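Marked as duplicate of an earlier ticket. Keeping the data here for the record.
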Amino acid sequence: MATNDINTEEKILSAAIELYPLKGDITIREIAKKAKVNVAAINYYFKNKDNLMKAVEKHYSNILYDIQSKIINDPNTTLEDKLIIWANNLIEYMFKWPALITLVTNLIMQNKDYESEIVNKFFTNIEFMTKVQQIISEITGIEDKDVLNRKYIQLFSGVLGPILFQVIPLVSGNKGIIIDFSIKEERMKYIESLVKTIL
């Protein structure tokens, strides 16, 4: 593939990456305008909009996965702080890019066989789950796998709850929230309370 081809493909992907998570659903024409290419170029490199959106999801999933791994594997952070920092970063990330939830949902709804990067890296990632359970086990002394499974689900649900509770209404234009998780102080109070309850 020529350098010009790579640059054009990257320009298209960069434009979609920049537009979608902030704006939500975008048209091929909007992406083409942002990338300064014609619509035919998008069809040439990605075949269709769904393939381009899958590439956008993969991009943001990889960033989030790298952040998550760095936090959980940091040898200089206390075990409890790893859980608190991880939870805060995940919530912050989804507040920064709120339309990602809609993107993942749309991709899965359009194709039940689609293997979502976010689902694979966060919901069905056994390696990450095991690391978090090891942290909980080391702090609490709990070794019962069933109990650790429940505690992991409680922690993960406790982090996803605020994201769903606040981000989805914001994306749809509503403001009905009890705690404003976009305020760091409020978010940290919630996260610290959540982690202490689980531990």
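See parent ticket for discussion. The chain has a mean pLDDT of 87.
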